[in-house]
Amino acid sequence: MTKKYDTNLWLEHIEKGISMGPYSADWDSLSAFQPPEWFSGVKFGIFMHWGLYSVPAFNNEWYSRNMYIQGTPEFEHHIKTYGPQKDFGYKDFIPLFTAENFDPKEWIRLFKEAGARYIFPVAEHHDGFQMYRSELSHYNSYEMGPKRDIVGELKTSAEAEGLHFCTSSHRAEHWWFMGHGREFDSDIKEPMEFGDFYWPAMPEPDNFDMQSTPYPTEEYLTDWLIRTVEIIDRYSPEMLYFDWWIGHEAFKPYLTKLIAYYYNHGHALGKRVAVCGKMEDLAFGCGIMEVERGGFAEAKAFPWQTDTAVARNSWCYTTSLDYKSSREIIATLIDVVSRNGNLLLNIGPKADGTIPDGDKKILSDVGDWLKINGEAIHDSRVWRITQEGPTRDTEGAFSDGTEKTYSEEDIRFTVGHGCIYAFAMNYPESGEILIRSIAKKDNGFSRAFYGIIDDVKIPGYEGPVEFERREEGLHVKAAVSSPYPVVIKIITR
What we know:
Blueprint: H1 7-19, H2 27-30, H3 39-42, E1 44-48, H4 63-66, H5 73-82, H6 104-113, E2 118-124, H7 150-160, E3 164-165, E4 167-169, H8 174-177, H9 218-235, E5 239-242, H10 252-268, E6 274-278, E7 288-292, E8 304-309, H11 326-338, E9 341-347, H12 357-373, E10 387-388, E11 411-416, E12 419-424, E13 432-435, E14 453-457, E15 466-470, E16 473-477, E17 486-492
Helix pairs in contact: 1-9, 1-10, 6-7, 6-12, 9-10, 11-12
């Protein structure tokens, strides 16, 4: 059961879109990219991994791949729970994915209360099931499963509440994602036609080798391009996110076409848009740099984004989530923002469309903290000093395996509203803290701060705040008690 579309008509449409704007399909032209005006100010967004993999809710969102790899926990779990893969395959989760309690307005209200200012629902994950209305494949949430345009409904609800709407496609990895199902008697087998749900199910390469074989075919790459353009045309997202495999060299000419089309589409609408790509997947300066579950050790001159999840062991809902603490999430937000980045925090709804209590708790805690301290985060900027104290971030991706332990000397900084904001990452029980970066003179820790301090306040705290500018730093005393980082607002003139 496949939909037939006219590839040539689509390609003509894409070439026309590229020809009618300022960007052409090469990195030289795309390097004229400027980030969306709003991006650097919003600081905090919500990612959503929700799809067929939410039905088995086992281990993580790669269930569709792993259930076909003999000997894995997913393989054994699948047989025990649903029967042999030849009788009950991944496609058989589609009618079970009914999303009967999905309320996009409720989701958006929850995200807005959490202090988020933009959203990134996953439009299509590696498994190939589209969470939106599509003219290119029957295997989408509008025709099957929930029989609703999930992405479209979230866009409408987000924009009604003033949140920026963005989305992601993880389709690139589908080239090999279902390939292990060909290795034994499963429902992934020949004949397999273009557009079938599992197609093309190629052998899995070293998927971090960006020159690996089997090399994606022109047919597959063209389909990837057209599918992504359909998302752009139908939903006009303000940003597009791609997972890492678009870095494969086979995608490069298709990727530059896609980005040129997308940036010209935004230009025609009178707005800047952006592609988010992992580290070196895009030529530097042609989009927003993305760091998965990690970041940078120092502030960067360019805006960037980290995507991480409320749980360490999965991006989607499972029955065995290893949740991070709310304190860790808030500390990550501070660390990222102090370095000129944005935090895209992922939550994983259940298959029925409800948000798990664990996710809600973290969102509520972050929202409560931001209601008090949001002025130090939203619309803030990087100060000339990013941090002080012994605890440093690890440079690069996948560095959130354990929660950091901050000392009473660890401080991060932002600026905004004519103020310097110092985040005490672990406020001392004594109530006394020394901010060495704001010393009267060079103390060997940093250059002296030569500005004038009018006052020092702690948002949300109504007690007295004593402060004294000393040669070794700014001494602050306040009887604050909080399980979360404490913001010290330094008012200057």
